[in-house]
């Protein structure tokens, strides 16, 4: 069922998918917030800045797109039996930075059944961090990046992981309003930053997750359930 939402002079649809197979087309669209429950686990996996390959800038004011982040979020949600929320090629204000109700993306996150954990998937530009992966919690007091990062590192020793609270990371999530809203609800929430080579396959299959990204997702799913 589609719910048109007026926000910042842009019509944004929150579209709940009963059939996960329909997500493939949705994640290639613009101005859509895609929602899908892969199971009953009360966890939320999300991506506020997803865009398909070839889209370099999103939002207003413009910011760099996290190409493929929604694909990663969808696979992780599927592996965990969790709920998925993805802002696809957003055209309005930054979905996870806006305070207050925060527009359709945050509406889809918080106007739902209570959840116990949130992982928000992001993409960092090449060479913008000394790490392949960064885990941050921003102002969220309930997330333990050090512990989760250690569990993930044990499963993926060849990938470098920066953890807020242990290493000096590039993306600290201090302006991430979603993590702050989760803190107010007593919910642990993480910002997961990934290098491009963990999110998108090179041509001729640019909107697919590379094999090493799949291994990362599977390892993270194990670490979260450990």
Cα Rg:
16 Å
Q: Cα distance, first to last residue? A: 35 Å
Tally of strands: 12
The count of helical stretches stands at 6
**SS-based structural class?**
alpha/beta
What is the ordering of alpha helices and beta strands? EEHEEEEEHEHEEHEHEH
Tell me, briefly, the overall form.
globular
Portion of residues in beta strands equals 25-35%
Mean pLDDT: 89
How helix-rich are the residues, as a percent range? Answer: 25-40%
What about the largest sheet?
10 strands, mixed
Poorly predicted ranges (pLDDT <50, ≥5 residues)?
Answer: 1-11
Protein model, in words:
With 226 residues, this protein is of the alpha/beta class. The protein has 6 helices and 12 strands. It has helices spanning 23-26, 69-80, 103-110, 145-155, 177-184, 211-225, and strands at residues 2-7, 10-17, 32-37, 43-51, 57-58, 63-64, 66-67, 83-88, 117-123, 133-136, 161-163, 188-194. Strands 1, 2, 3, 4, 7, 8, 9, 10, 11 and 12 form a 10-stranded mixed β-sheet that branches. Strands 5-6 form a two-stranded antiparallel sheet. Helix 1 links the parallel strand 2 (10-17) and strand 3 (32-37). Helix 2 (69-80) crosses helix 6 (211-225) and helix 4 crosses helix 6 (211-225). The N and C termini lie far apart (35 Å). Mean pLDDT is 89; it is low at 1-11.
